Amino acid sequence: MNVPLVLPQFLDRAVSLYGEKEAIHCEGRSFTYNELNGRVNQLSRGLQDLGIRKGDHVAYLAGNSVEMLEGFYGVYQVGAVMVPLNIRLKPEDYVFILNHSESKVLFVDQDLYELIQPVKDQLDSVRHIIVHYKDSQTNEIDYDNWLATFSTETFDRTELDENDVCSLLYTSGTTGNPKGVMLTHRNNYLHALSTMHHLRIQDSDVLLHVLPMFHVNGWGSPFYYTANGASQICSRKATPESIIRAIQEHKVSILHMAPTVLNSILQYYDQHKPVIDHDVRVVIAGSAPPPAFITRVEEELGWEFIQVYGMTETSPLSLVSTIRSHLDHLSDEEKTRLKAKAGYPMIGADVRIIDDFGNEVPHDGETAGEVAVRSHGVMKGYWKNEEATAEVLQDGFMLTGDMGTVDEYGYINIVDRKKDVIISGGENISSIEVEGVLYAHPAILEAAVIAVPHEKWGETPHAYVVLRENMTATEQEIIDFSRSKLAHFKAVTGITFVDELPKTASGKIQKVQIRDAYWESIGKEGRKVN
Q1: N vs C: which end of the chain shows fewer Cβ within 10 Å?
Q2: DSSP E strand stretches across 419-527
Q3: pLDDT tens across 7-33, in order?
Q4: What is this structure's pTM?
Q5: Would you say 528 and 368 are in contact if contact means Cβ atoms under 8 Å apart?
């Protein structure tokens, strides 16, 4: 009899083999896998008591915590769908996502409740709001008190199929409103099996949750670290100091994070020279780092650097940049250059660089094409958006919208983003969404937003603006205007005033020319993708 590939099996394995081992340490609290399982059972009973049934959506607005980790398994046991929310959005963003997803219950940390309180009356489907770490001033259900009313005994799970949707993750694209990515149990399960192999996860590992779990479930970490009985450490807020302290105190062996966070750790190291005398692996995804950055991590920190590539729609990881054994003969400089690339396909992923006709480009490291992925991790589709689904799922492949090259060794390098998504501090920003806000400014006639490099955040939005005739506006005024209308990480950080924007014959703004003009203005050669 075939056993369906469903995620609660991972916690079952951990309980069976590592029941008395520390599962998670969170801000002074520690729980074994047996204790974590008991809390998961309490949560499932609580959700069932609230009327949550198979297929219902349950949203979480929370930092990395035991409450967030147990949410995945507690929600799945009743057959419901987890909807993790980005904690860096504005209240109106949550209105759209919660209503679009039809979420019925919202779990929220007390320190994030202020993002929900002003828009509570606009939430159409949310019936219950339950607050983690609730204070006496908040008039909502207290999570700890609520959880304590339910039994820790084994829960009679809803029957699950591996093709059932388990996660609904909202991601920014090239349109203003985010799209809900539907991932199935099978997607996440097989992604976990592949990723745990490539990252060499063992039961002796200690993971520090730095990457927020709302980011494709922290790149799937709640699943494959749990399956292996690894210990997990988390804090709802991560600073370079707290990260280093946790690594030292808990002998953390592996971390996942955005490049900006790693850069802040390097800066902290320069100032304080902390002593870390055990092996550490750091897993990074995002804009390709310069080889010198990798050298600093490996030589100064003494950590192993692992670059990966993925997107929410592919569960997410598809590429890894570790050095394969038959390439050990390469020089250190050549190896570092390869480590800085997005990498080669993980097991179970078929990743190709294709031209406009669907043909693979030469493996010459120069010819650019679109990155296309076929894998067990490719999403079921976008929730309530068949048109957008059809645009990206074609001929069995997920068209990523990223442009890349592939070299003679099969390593893929991302060279540009076809769809103009800006990645700032690990967050996706829709340039069209930012432009829409700028067009609301009374003095702006036209606006185009591109990504420009930023020392701290990797890249940030920069706007090219045409002002209306006989009207004026300063750069700071427009920056402040965008900050008042958008989450701050989405706001523009610079303005270039121009008389007109380059356009095609049909009137479409040509951002390639705008990017080239930017790079020329700062004395660098613009990146061009043919």
Answers
A1: N
A2: 421-424, 427-430, 444-454, 458-467, 494-497
A3: 999 999 999 999 999 999 999 999 999
A4: 0.84
A5: no
